């Protein structure tokens, strides 16, 4: 007996090192100390645990005993840690914040959150990609989900939108087909998080209604630089309903305060390798350092007369109302200022549902929206496993609530007392309120019960063309390149040709470019169209990313490459200018510990050159010392750092000593343009930072021939 006790103690000591602990020093650095005081580890039942390193065995070498309830509870719980990932939008990242109303909208809606200027409503927002699994990469070419939960005083309101204002299909009954087609092919189970494969383009090329959305998805909108720099859209037409029961149609738009920005495809591919968590790290870091992302809620408001006169059906989710025709009105701002304490508890378990609307917000008859209103409730039951998913704190309303729903798996709160029904004559429990309760807008509807698509939904190409002609020349070339890339991954030539036949109905030059790049022997006939493409729709500048960029470099990040001997004064000036612009930076050095500056001070590095390629930054500055160049020129990652920054049309600040690196990167002095800026003094460092607001030197693009 004594022998067993002794061996158990010995193995506990050898299995793990208990007496070490990392603590923060005065400068915030972590270093190792002896263990501090910790609370006592318990089982889920609250029982204190004596040994969490060794299962209960007979003798030191087993067998293990079934009576070890702590071991069994621990493993049982681990075995059940996973829940089904979302069938779409599985990969997501969320943050808490608030929505602040600018001024009362009582004229249009009785929704409580819009009644008082300055009213703050708690918010939780989840951004996502659509096609990939939970563990896929952030920079997939894909739509981004933009789901907003507002905890209003009259119940939760979910605006479950995307960063694109239209959708692939007009009727929810097609959603399973669309998603089956875009996800991994079912026999081989690849490609992951990519639309570049036969099944997707087969479905799309057989679904002309998707053409407008295809233009958006092939544009740089599908590879945003950050969640913080993208728009969000409610997509459908909804209704606002006021206290007099009058209805106004509405479309919801979230406009990022810091302007729009995307990356280029070649960059996206490299970011996915260098930092698959690029978007979530960006949001996490921005919020942690107090750069709270902000969007303005803007509404497109219109009445039935406008809807009747507008050239497309406002119930068709493949159409927009151009902002130049119906300017959106700012009504409030959304600020994200806190990360969830735990990813699973909040980001994973949050349940968004289009049917969550407070009194004063109502649906339209958009057939996609009507179908979504069924799907979201259903999917939460599957995913979260119980009708009591509203008991999970992230899903619970923050306003008072009372109902008689009871029991079921994992019930956290049941009605208290005898009465669990109404009406009752005990005078207990909640009752309906005709004044406060949700009442649908009393729209009169009639018609034959049939499976039909409205004639007014039949034009599939005019707005696709309008989107295309609203882009800058560079943006148009990105769309052509994206289509070519995607279709080059399609193995069946007939599918490629079918797609080109649709492009012919959108823009002939675009179709020719894609056909040429794909090596099509002869041009197919244009696809049959129910209606001819309208050539008279004006371009809408609001649809271009480049035209809607930021005014400053604010919220962006400069990558600064240093070596031993880098000019300390220049670095200081650069940092000060960035700080003033509201921008951040990372230091990249040959060694991750950092480098010794010209004045002997130490420069802490954030990244080693291999770990900090220039694709992770919005612009770069090269501050190497002449003495360090011989070694730096041997580093292929230093060469790539510059070559990529140049090819991706980024601004490059440099000191004279860095010039040999340009040569090594294949950039001749003749290639230098307005984006290659010498920074020899503090003054020049400041003007370099001022020029960064433009973000990219697109004029360079035709010369670097990016794909
Ligand atoms: Fe959906 C999730 C956005 C059409 C069925 N959808 C989901 C999410 C977003 C959207 C942002 C993720 C929410 C989160 O972060 O948890 N979906 C859209 C938009 C659509 C759209 C903007 C078109 C305008 N969706 C759509 C249709 C259906 C669904 C037509 C089904 C008929 N969507 C779902 C779903 C999901 C979902 C299966 C998966 C996980 C979830 O709901 O909670 O119910």
TrEMBL record:
<comment type="function">
    <text>Decomposes hydrogen peroxide into water and oxygen; serves to protect cells from the toxic effects of hydrogen peroxide.</text>
</comment>
<dbReference type="InterPro" id="IPR041399">
    <property type="entry name" value="Catalase_large_C"/>
</dbReference>
<dbReference type="InterPro" id="IPR029062">
    <property type="entry name" value="Class_I_gatase-like"/>
</dbReference>
<dbReference type="InterPro" id="IPR020835">
    <property type="entry name" value="Catalase_sf"/>
</dbReference>
<dbReference type="GO" id="GO:0006979">
    <property type="term" value="P:response to oxidative stress"/>
</dbReference>
<dbReference type="Pfam" id="PF00199">
    <property type="entry name" value="Catalase"/>
</dbReference>
<dbReference type="InterPro" id="IPR024708">
    <property type="entry name" value="Catalase_AS"/>
</dbReference>
<feature type="active site">
    <location>
        <position position="89"/>
    </location>
</feature>
<keyword id="KW-0575">Peroxidase</keyword>
<keyword id="KW-0376">Hydrogen peroxide</keyword>
<dbReference type="Pfam" id="PF18011">
    <property type="entry name" value="Catalase_C"/>
</dbReference>
<dbReference type="InterPro" id="IPR043156">
    <property type="entry name" value="Catalase_clade2_helical"/>
</dbReference>
<dbReference type="GO" id="GO:0005829">
    <property type="term" value="C:cytosol"/>
</dbReference>
<feature type="compositionally biased region" description="Polar residues">
    <location>
        <begin position="1"/>
        <end position="14"/>
    </location>
</feature>
<feature type="compositionally biased region" description="Basic and acidic residues">
    <location>
        <begin position="16"/>
        <end position="29"/>
    </location>
</feature>
<dbReference type="GO" id="GO:0020037">
    <property type="term" value="F:heme binding"/>
</dbReference>
<dbReference type="GO" id="GO:0046872">
    <property type="term" value="F:metal ion binding"/>
</dbReference>
<keyword id="KW-0349">Heme</keyword>
<feature type="binding site">
    <location>
        <position position="175"/>
    </location>
    <ligand>
        <name>heme</name>
    </ligand>
</feature>
<feature type="binding site">
    <location>
        <position position="86"/>
    </location>
    <ligand>
        <name>heme</name>
    </ligand>
</feature>
<protein>
    <recommendedName>
        <fullName>Catalase</fullName>
        <ecNumber>1.11.1.6</ecNumber>
    </recommendedName>
</protein>
<keyword id="KW-0560">Oxidoreductase</keyword>
<dbReference type="InterPro" id="IPR011614">
    <property type="entry name" value="Catalase_core"/>
</dbReference>
<feature type="binding site" description="axial binding residue">
    <location>
        <position position="376"/>
    </location>
    <ligand>
        <name>heme</name>
    </ligand>
</feature>
<feature type="domain" description="Catalase core">
    <location>
        <begin position="42"/>
        <end position="430"/>
    </location>
</feature>
<feature type="active site">
    <location>
        <position position="162"/>
    </location>
</feature>
<feature type="binding site">
    <location>
        <position position="126"/>
    </location>
    <ligand>
        <name>heme</name>
    </ligand>
</feature>
<dbReference type="InterPro" id="IPR002226">
    <property type="entry name" value="Catalase_haem_BS"/>
</dbReference>
<feature type="region of interest" description="Disordered">
    <location>
        <begin position="1"/>
        <end position="34"/>
    </location>
</feature>
<comment type="similarity">
    <text>Belongs to the catalase family. HPII subfamily.</text>
</comment>
<keyword id="KW-0408">Iron</keyword>
<dbReference type="GO" id="GO:0004096">
    <property type="term" value="F:catalase activity"/>
</dbReference>
<keyword id="KW-0479">Metal-binding</keyword>
<dbReference type="GO" id="GO:0042744">
    <property type="term" value="P:hydrogen peroxide catabolic process"/>
</dbReference>
<dbReference type="InterPro" id="IPR010582">
    <property type="entry name" value="Catalase_immune_responsive"/>
</dbReference>
<dbReference type="InterPro" id="IPR024712">
    <property type="entry name" value="Catalase_clade2"/>
</dbReference>
<feature type="binding site">
    <location>
        <position position="372"/>
    </location>
    <ligand>
        <name>heme</name>
    </ligand>
</feature>
<feature type="binding site">
    <location>
        <position position="383"/>
    </location>
    <ligand>
        <name>heme</name>
    </ligand>
</feature>
<dbReference type="InterPro" id="IPR018028">
    <property type="entry name" value="Catalase"/>
</dbReference>
<dbReference type="Pfam" id="PF06628">
    <property type="entry name" value="Catalase-rel"/>
</dbReference>
């Amino acid at each position: 007996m004594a022998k067993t006790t002794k061996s158990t103690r010995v193995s506990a000591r050898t299995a793990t090192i208990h007496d070490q602990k990392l603590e923060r020093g005065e400068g915030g650095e972590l270093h190792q100390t002896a263990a501090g005081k910790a609370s006592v580890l318990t089982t889920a039942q609250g029982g204190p645990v004596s040994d969490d390193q060794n299962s209960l065995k007979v003798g030191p070498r087993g067998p293990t005993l079934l009576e070890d309830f702590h071991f069994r509870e621990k493993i049982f719980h681990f075995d059940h840690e996973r829940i089904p990932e979302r069938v779409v939008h599985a990969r997501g990242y969320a943050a808490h914040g608030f929505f602040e109303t600018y001024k009362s909208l009582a004229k249009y809606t009785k929704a409580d959150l819009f009644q008082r200027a300055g009213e703050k409503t708690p918010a939780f927002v989840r951004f996502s990609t659509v096609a990939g699994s939970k563990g896929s990469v952030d920079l997939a070419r894909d739509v981004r989900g933009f789901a907003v939960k507002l905890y209003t005083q009259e119940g939760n309101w979910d605006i479950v939108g995307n960063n694109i204002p239209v959708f692939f299909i007009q009727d929810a009954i097609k959603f399973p087909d669309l998603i089956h087609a875009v996800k991994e092919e079912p026999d081989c189970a690849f490609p992951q998080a990519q639309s570049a494969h036969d099944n997707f383009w087969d479905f799309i090329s057989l679904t002309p209604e998707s053409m407008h959305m295809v233009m958006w998805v092939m544009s740089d909108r599908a590879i945003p630089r950050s969640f913080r720099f993208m728009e969000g859209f409610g997509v459908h037409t909804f209704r606002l309903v006021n206290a007099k029961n009058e209805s106004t149609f509405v479309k919801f738009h979230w406009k990022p305060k810091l302007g729009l920005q995307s990356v280029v495809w070649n960059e996206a591919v490299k970011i996915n390798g260098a930092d698959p968590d690029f978007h979530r790290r960006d949001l996490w870091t921005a919020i942690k350092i107090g750069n709270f992302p902000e969007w303005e809620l803007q509404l497109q408001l219109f009445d039935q007369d406008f809807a009747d006169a507008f050239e497309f059906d406002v119930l068709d989710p493949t159409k927009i109302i151009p902002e130049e025709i119906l300017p959106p009105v700012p009504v409030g701002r959304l600020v994200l200022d806190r990360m969830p304490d735990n990813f699973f508890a909040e980001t994973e378990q949050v349940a968004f549902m289009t049917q969550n609307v407070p009194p004063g917000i109502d649906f339209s008859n958009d057939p996609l929206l009507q179908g979504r209103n069924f799907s979201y409730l259903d999917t939460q039951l599957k995913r979260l496993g119980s009708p009591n998913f509203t008991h999970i704190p992230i899903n619970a309303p923050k306003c008072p609530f009372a109902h008689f729903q009871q029991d079921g798996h994992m019930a956290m709160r049941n009605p208290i007392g005898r009465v669990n029904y109404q009406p009752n004559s005990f005078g207990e429990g909640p009752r309906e309120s005709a004044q406060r309760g949700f009442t649908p807008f009393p729209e009169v509807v009639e018609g034959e019960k049939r499976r039909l698509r409205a004639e007014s939904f039949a034009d599939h190409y005019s707005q696709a063309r309008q989107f295309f002609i609203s882009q800058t020349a560079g943006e148009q070339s990105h769309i052509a390149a994206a289509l070519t890339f995607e279709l080059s991954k399609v193995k069946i030539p007939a599918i490629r040709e079918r797609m080109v036949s649709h492009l012919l109905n959108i823009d002939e030059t675009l179709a020719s470019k894609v056909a040429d790049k794909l090596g099509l022997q002869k041009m197919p006939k244009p696809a049959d169209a129910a209606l001819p493409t309208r050539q008279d729709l004006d371009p809408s500048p609001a649809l271009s990313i480049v035209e809607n960029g930021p005014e400053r470099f604010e919220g962006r990040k400069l990558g600064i490459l240093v070596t031993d001997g880098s000019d300390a004064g220049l670095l200081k000036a650069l940092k000060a200018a960035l700080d003033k612009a509201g921008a951040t930076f990372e230091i990249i050095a040959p060694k991750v510990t950092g480098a010794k500056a010209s004045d002997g001070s130490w420069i802490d590095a954030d990244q080693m050159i291999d770990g900090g390629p220039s694709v992770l930054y919005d612009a770069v500055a090269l501050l190497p010392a002449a003495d360090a160049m011989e070694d730096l020129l041997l580093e292929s990652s230093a060469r790539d750092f510059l070559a990529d920054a140049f090819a991706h049309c980024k601004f490059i600040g440099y000191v004279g000593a860095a010039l040999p690196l340009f040569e090594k990167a294949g950039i001749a002095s003749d290639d230098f343009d307005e984006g290659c800026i010498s920074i020899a003094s503090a003054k020049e460092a400041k003007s370099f930072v001022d020029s960064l607001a433009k973000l990219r030197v697109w004029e360079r693009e035709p010369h670097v021939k990016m794909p």
